[in-house]
Amino acid sequence: xxxxxxxxxxxxxxxxxxxxxxxxxxxxxxxxxxxxxxxxxxxxxxxxxxxxxxxxxxxxxxxxxxxxxxxxxxxxxxxxxxxxxxxxxxxxxxxxxxxxxxxxxxxxxxxxxxxxxxxxxxxxxxxxxxxxxxxxxxxxxxxxxxxxxxxxxxxxxxxxxxxxxxxxxxxxxxxxxxxxxxxxxxxxxxxxxxxxxxxxxxxxxxxxxxxxxxxxxxxxxxxxxxxxxxxxxxxxxxxxxxxxxx
Length: 246
Hints:
By secondary structure, the protein is mainly β. The chain has helices at residues 14-19, 125-128, and strands at 24-26, 30-34, 39-46, 52-59, 75-78, 81-84, 89-96, 107-116, 134-143, 157-164, 167-174, 181-189, 192-195, 208-215, 225-232, 238-244. The protein has two domains: 14-143, Sandwich (Immunoglobulin-like), CATH 2.60.40.10; 153-244, Immunoglobulins (Immunoglobulin-like, Sandwich).
């Protein structure tokens, strides 16, 4: 995730979008390009009570490149700059330039929607007190044909534990060619639940490991341990699964 001031404003339904307290909301939580597709579209809504200027671009998560003009990715967002009135909608096109990407796994990029509020003098005193510049981010996945859509993803991930000071490091191994996204991970010990510390991005890349820290200084010995993982699917829905802990 970016180190800019971020607000993850992700809405799958228009009702959720209009009830959001943040600014720009999108009609889906992620964008999936399948090999052969060259364009995808999103609808955006300005849920603020004031107009905004918005800038859109795609990056690869490299936070050292802070300006869109320095970023090169296979995807372009159009329009790159637009104004949106309160409660108004705007279509956004994502165009893939056919750049070659790995064929044995998914690739991931980030769509940025940078919201520029109006000058305070044009707004009411009440609105001025809550105005923030925000960068809404969502993931773009590019999926090669030979990989296909995720299938039996829970069978392709495993968890092991490593001692870490006053807690436990839970290590998730992703043996699949897809990115595995979690809304949360918890350690189950007897009748107690210990939530893993949230990270800016809980996703595990294909064929890789990721560490999650659980503060569990009072964890009893010889208790059977399991993992409860909240997996996020292609539609942004969360499915809970339990896993053994190696």
